[in-house]
Amino acid sequence: MKGSAFVSTGARETALRYGGPLGERFDRAFQYWALLPALLVLLTLTVFPLIELVGMSFSTVSFSQGQVIWTWSGLDNLRTLLRDHVFFTAIGNTIVFVVVTVTVEAVLGFTLALLASEVGRGAGLARQLLMIPILVPGIAIGTIWSLMYNYESGIFNVALRFLHLPAQSWTADPHLALASIMVVDIWHWTSFMFLLMLAGLESLPAEPIEAARVDGASGLQVLQYIVLPLMRPTILVAVLFRTIFAFKVFDEVFLLTGGGPGTASEVISFYIYQVFFPQSRMGYAAFLSVVTILTTVVLVAVYLRAARRREALA
Amino acid sequence: MRIFGPRSAVLALPVLTVGVLVTLIPFVLTFLTSIKYQIDILTGAWVFRPTLDNYTHLFFSLQSNFVVNTVNSLVVASVATVLVVVVAGLAGYSLERFHWPRHTAAIVAGWVLLFHMVPGVTIVGPYYLLFHALGLYDTRLALILSYLVLNLPMAVWIVQSFVGDLPTELEEAAHIDGASNVRTFLQIVAPLIAPGLAAVAILSFVFSWNEFLFALNLTATNAVTIPVGIAKYAQQYVIRYGDMSAAAFFATIPAVIVVALAQRQIVRGLTLGALK
Fold first, then answer.
1. Regions of chain A where pLDDT drops below 70
2. Is CB count within 10 Å lower at the N or C end of chain B?
3. How many Å apart are CA B195 and CA B193, to the nearest integer?
């Protein structure tokens, strides 16, 4: 089928099959026009905007009487970037955010998946219920947690007061704001890790595990020497995928802290948004965007190469 | 599969149950808040008189735009979903089953992957200018187009994976029997990959329904969707917690329906989107 070099047929059969010579031409090019809509969408809505983004990043973009005015500004945006402490704070916070949330989510998700596969059939319901947070709007989750973090009536402070401990300003205290958002992210996305890990565990071959058990290996030994090595590809991909998405965190920051107090919970996506829209510095925001895109690409490439090398050695 | 032997479930089940409870309790609390009067919310009362006032206010008050937001969300998510299924169905089939020069396939796949990885906020700025220039700012069409692009990578991967699982013999047989490429696709392939197309449709709808960043920056008043509407509640001077929690709870309904009705398709779709 691949290549689809179909044998050419007689005129009568052609007419039957395609309803005429034009229909035949149309049908032979099926492979091309089937891809065409997707290509058009990608060209107009991904390639073109990215070219525009690069152009903007060397410009100052301003609005005047409904007109957009681009002024070439060379490397001005780079100079601004080098003096921009907030951006570097945002990078630092984002790194902390990504490393902590993805690690905790991976450990929790893997543990829950192990438990679910021990429980066996009854775990179906757990899987179903744990799927809900993944599919709920980030903004709704931010709202749900802002009610729980509420100083007066939120569940956390109610619990603290009940234990005669001082109530906390979860999202307004500079020492707690970023951590509070990380908790929300972990709650939101551990389910996703769980789903991926459980899918991985369920596709493991049964023979080596059974053989090891027959040979008298303990549960922990099976886990360490058989399950974990076999699960490595799944874990690497799951961590990569979540890392890419944790890097984009926006909704919860927008709703819970707005990057504050001060810059305590400023992260890259939110900062770029602030520069783009509330501050209307589109040229500079575009420059930050280009830097972010390049960094993402480089980091993913490095990670994939490292993962592949370890696979080769293993 | 048991790794820790026959008695492990005795320990595993309670821990797993705790995990599930931690996941569900925030939703329960939100629902409880949504049926309280503001006074009961502020005092944190556990015993209270339930009320549907917040929902009534959300949908029927003249100060509330929530009905308009809901219509916008439904229209945008539905139209985007139909477009995603058609465009990705055709593209995924073409990429998976026909011969493409190696570099063409690699460039398309690499580009799609790159676009899927970069933070959305980097694209939304150019979109803002583009849609302003086209006169589409604050229209549903701008959001429909955005969500078509945002969901396309995942959708094409899912379709490719389902097409890849089909034996080619069916298509060969159809062709020998005189079916054209179009007919083979519509009458043989499409029905067989229906579960995949269903996964694409469900996930596209849910993700479009949920999306916030693009909706926030590409709309102002006319095309505002539910997430942006909810965010506006949170920014008011005196926050109406009841309305806010009612809106948040309402916004989670599609997720719950989908999990109840189509969990198998979603699991495959979600894991595929990631493991690709």
1. 1-21, 311-314
2. N
3. 5
